[in-house]
Amino acid sequence: MNTQDWLQNLPIADMDDACRVVVISFNQGSRKDFFRNNMLQPFEKGELVAVEGVSGFDLGEISLTGEVVRLQMKKKGVDERNPDMKKILRRATDRDIDIWKQNKAREKEALIRSRAIAKQLNLNMKMSQVEIQADGRKATFFYIADDRVDFRELIKIYASEFKVKVEMRQIGARQEAGKVGGIGSCGRELCCATWLTDFKSVNTTAARYQNLSINQTKLSGQCGRLKCCLNYELDTYLDALQGFPENADMLQVARGTATLIKKDIFKNLMWYVLPDSNKQYPVTIERVRKIRSLNMQNVIPEELEAVEVVSTKPKEVEPEFVDVVGHITLKSLEKGDKKRQQQRRELRGGQQQGKGGQQQRGPVQQKNVQQGPKQGGVQKNMPIQKAGPHQQQQRPNPQQGGGNKGGQNQQRPPQQPRRPNQGNNNNNQKKS
Predict the structure, then answer these.
(1) CATH code linked to domain 102-171
(2) Disulfide check for 240: which of 60, 185, 265, 329 has CB 3.0–4.6 Å away?
(3) CB 192: neighbour CB atoms within 10 A?
């Protein structure tokens, strides 16, 4: 268990009057005991020391030293001058630590084997933990049982099986949870595994005084019993409830009998419910006393005169709607969109250039066909060169699409006016 020596910086006037007793913890703080330090050298917290054991020695860790040990001894009723108090032998050597580690490694196998033996003997008990002394001469078996168990035959089998001196100790469910350890529903280490040593009885009355719902799952700890922390604030609630009126569970009003549901010690309100509705009505203590006195006089008031409870919690302001379209963009998606747009532009530009070349090529070929060499002012019909299949496909047809209505891209080639023959012109002049 975690300990804090809050008197370690206290100056000592007389060294002869200093406390010669230290607190030593075993098995990671699950067991502690007082030992006398007859050596001249002082010890500090966290050091490993060898102490007197049962027909041998045991290894433990210094947990507390100094004047705070006297307060612990006074609290537990231990005499500092008791001659039967065990002593510290020496600081732990390397050989002591090696033997201690070897024997600690045997504890898991011994626990499994001890459970199997107890099951074969049909004993109504549960083996919780096995603790072997540092020198391996003694083993302590911790068990849980609801009734008294006759384990005389069990001890003989354990002694012959493990070749050690056997000691049986009965513990409760809370002590077992303290030895195992864990994290509670509050998010911290279990109290029984850190600092709590005195286990007091807890019942559901403590939960009722604190207006807690009787839910066995939420009120139970890892040991399966009611949580010890239910007793921490019980005295505060009992002191606060003394200012509330007694015998006020039922109040007679015009609408019926009002039933008390809960008491709020923080706002000094009592909550009632009427038979014709499920609504809860908060009533002040003064009003409850007044209604109680009227009922004693066989006077039934018309209403409870419930008060309005104002929440002190600040209201959460809902954020206004903001159009974030276009403000938040992903770079990867934005790059992809830019590449697609660029590809589309290139495709469109290539298509427009191809159409423009086809439109310009068709009129030029037709013009070359119509115009030929002129001799004597008379135009001779020149043989028309047949275009290849590729050129016929590219030659625009002015009759398709109804002229200009067919499309704006296809333009009709311009027609050149024919020049009249010179001979015809001379004849016309002579006639005139």
Answers:
(1) 3.30.300.20
(2) 265
(3) 25
